[in-house]
């Protein structure tokens, strides 16, 4: 199945849906089948917060083909207000504006166009809050 079709079949990628363990309350994104904290297998769906903070980041200067037009760009590990850590691009700012601990908002945007066909892949990026 092509990448965009595969991603369309994963609603958590578009709605930031995570799995919350019914036994211990730990939250996982992407969702898991077994809780890494307690081994339980029962989860409820929960929506991640739209906000978080930068835990660490780097500036990409040599990128894979689908991102080469965006160089240089920032990629950060961000921690949502729910405590879940995600890796995503930080956009609409200068690299020197970034700092560990800065607040970010998660936004749904075009990630890249795939291959010669230009099929657009969407996902989440972060902007400074």
Cross-sheet strand order for the largest sheet: 4-5-6-8-7
Q: Helix amount, in percent?
A: under 10%
The largest pleated sheet is described as: 5 strands, mixed, barrel
Average of pLDDT: 89
In sequence order, what are the helices and strands, one letter per element?
Answer: HHEEEEEEEE
Supply the number of helical segments. 2
Corresponding CATH architecture of the largest domain: Beta Barrel
Number of domains: 2
What is the strand tally?
8
How widely separated are the two ends? Answer: 36 Å
C-alpha-based Rg, rounded: 16 Å
Low-confidence stretches: none
How would you characterize this protein structure?
- This protein is mostly beta strands and about 130 residues long.
- It is built from two helices and eight strands; from the N terminus they run ααββββββββ.
- The strands form two sheets. A five-stranded mixed beta barrel has the order 4-5-6-8-7.
- The longest helix has 6 residues, at about 5-10.
- It is globular and about 45 Å long.
- The model has no long low-confidence stretch (mean pLDDT about 90).
- InterPro entries: ChsH2_C, ChsH2_Znr, NA-bd_OB-fold, Thioester_dehydratase-like.
TL;DR of this structure?
This protein is mainly beta and 129 residues long. It is 8% helix and 46% strand.
Any chance you could write out the topology, listing elements then pairs?
Elements: H1 3-8, H2 12-15, E1 17-21, E2 27-28, E3 43-47, E4 51-60, E5 73-80, E6 85-91, E7 103-114, E8 119-128
Parallel strand pairs: 6-8
Antiparallel strand pairs: 1-2, 1-3, 4-5, 4-7, 5-6, 7-8
Domain ChsH2 C-terminal OB-fold: 47-109
Protein name: Transcriptional regulator
Pfam families: OB_ChsH2_C, zf-ChsH2
